[in-house]
Amino acid sequence: MANRLLLLLQLQLLLVVLFIFTSRAQLVGEGEVLLKLKDQWNNTQSMSSWKTSTSHCGWDGIACNLTSGLVTNITLQGRKLVGDVPSFVCNLTQLAVFDVYNNNLTGPFPDLSNCRRLQRLNLGWNTLVGELPGDIGDVLPEGIVTFDVGGNKLTGVIPKSIGNLSGLKELVLDNNLFRGSIPVEISKITGLEKLTLATNFFSPGRIPSEFGGFTKLKYLWVMEANLVGEIPIEFEKLVELEHFDLQRNNLTGTIPAGIWSFKNLKYVYLYNNKLHGGFPPTISGREFLQIDISKNQLN
To answer: Which residues form the signal peptide (predicted)?
Structure first.
């Protein structure tokens, strides 16, 4: 009996030692991934705190889980980073936020299929080129809530599979070189709060009436998107809208009257279309911050 108890204690001690060794090795590995990233982006000035003499959890732009010490956030906005986005960033197994907005990163859209904990991806305002992967909605994790690639030089069509990212709250695709049509499949992301498709090179087409199902949408920006036809009457269901921008298109017909009654609506930009009709009585007395509906055929 005593021998069995001693054996169990030895086994437990061995497991503890193995756990400590594995955890330390994993932490060292995470620091090595970040240093490799620093070398790839070749910016020692903005990442000067990234040194082996200190814990990577204290490095500028890095956040870690307080319990495990594993990296959860990389936030490096406006650091003049250059180079492409390597797939080995997914070796940070707990990475939830990857935000490199407003840098000089180039190359194609990165392979992030192994970033299984990713929730917020912001690659906006860099110089990414090429097309989004056709299966992008199937390879990114289900838990992703922000997908921002606005302000790049991405081409081709917006993949229909993007509608499979059903947990998204922010979908930012503006200021690229996308062509083709706006995929109606985006309407499957019913919890969207922000959608931007402005300033692309879409073929002339209608804005999908199915977008009227975005009952949580607060921000809609589809300026200069070659829109034709009428503003769908279904948009009267977008009751949470705060910012509504369809300016500089070729929209016709009238402005759905119900839009003016949205209690949170503050910004309306329908400038330079071919809309007609007049203002509904409900607009009087409302405290809009800015409305521009000039250069239409309104009376």
So the answer is: 1-25
* Residue pLDDT tens, the chain, 299 long: 555 555 555 455 433 333 333 333 344 699 999 999 999 998 778 899 999 999 999 999 999 999 999 999 999 999 999 999 999 999 999 999 999 999 999 999 999 999 999 999 999 999 999 999 999 999 999 899 999 999 999 999 999 999 999 999 999 999 999 999 999 999 999 999 999 999 999 999 999 999 999 999 999 999 999 999 999 999 999 999 999 999 999 999 999 999 999 999 999 999 999 999 987 766 766 789 999 999 999 98
Q: Tokens for 19, please give them.
A: 């756990």
Cβ proximity of 252 and 228 under 8 Å: yes
Secondary structure of residue 155 in the 3-state scheme: strand
Contacts of 11 (CB under 8 A, 6+ apart): none
- Collect all residues with Cβ–Cβ distance below 8 Å to 169 and sequence separation of at least 6: 145, 146, 191, 192, 193, 194
Cβ proximity of 134 and 158 under 8 Å? no
- The residue length of the chain stands at 299
Beta strands in 135-214 (DSSP E): 146-148, 153-155, 170-172, 194-196
Residue 282 CB coordination number (10 Å)? 13
pTM score over 0.85: yes
The domain defined by 2-298 carries CATH number 3.80.10.10: yes
Instruction: Tell me how crowded residue 153 is: count the other CB atoms within 10 A of its CB.
Output: 13
Domain residue ranges of the chain, discontinuous segments joined by +: 2-298
The one-letter amino acid code at 70 reads L
d(CA 118, CA 94): 8
For residues 34 and 270, give the distance between their C-alpha atoms in angstroms, rounded to a whole number. 45
